[in-house]
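#onboarding

Welcome to the new folks! Below is a worked example of what a typical request in this channel looks like: someone posts a single protein sequence, and someone else replies with the predicted structure as tokens. Don't worry about understanding the tokens yet, we'll cover that in week two.

Example request:
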Amino acid sequence: MVIPHLMRDQKTQNMNLSIKNKTGFTLIEILIYASLLVLLIVLMANAVASLSHIIVEAKTERAIRSSAEAAIERITREIRFAQTVDTGTSSFGTHPSTLVLTSIDPFTEAPQTVTISFASNQVTIKKGTGAVETLTSDSVTVTNLVFRHIVNGATSESIRTELTIENKSFYTTTVLRRSY
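Example response:
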């Protein structure tokens, strides 16, 4: 004969053993793991989006700087080797400025006119009767080109160039080599 309180203890032990032997996850555990996984995925997506945004900004900045440096370098070279500035046909101090220089063609040693100007959101140059070349990349937009004529004393002459590409400004002042 079985004593009732012993049966109850035996049932309780059997239930405890059956619960302990079960493997798997409860619904609450699955929800916690799923929410942690979603949180991790969202954080990773934000990190990738931020990284791609930074890369795009860096490429744009590099294109702007590269284009500005190339244009400023070419303008500086043309001014440096010019004999005179044609102040009659040049426009100074306002956007869009035009700079007209008289220089010597290095191949023919004949005088030539060099015109640096702004057209279609680009900086352009034209030498003599040659074709118009763009000095800035097509991937950037020039928003400002200003030349300033500076005369220092009786003989020294220089040009200040102010170039703005997509709200980034670049400046240089160049002395005409034959003016001092």
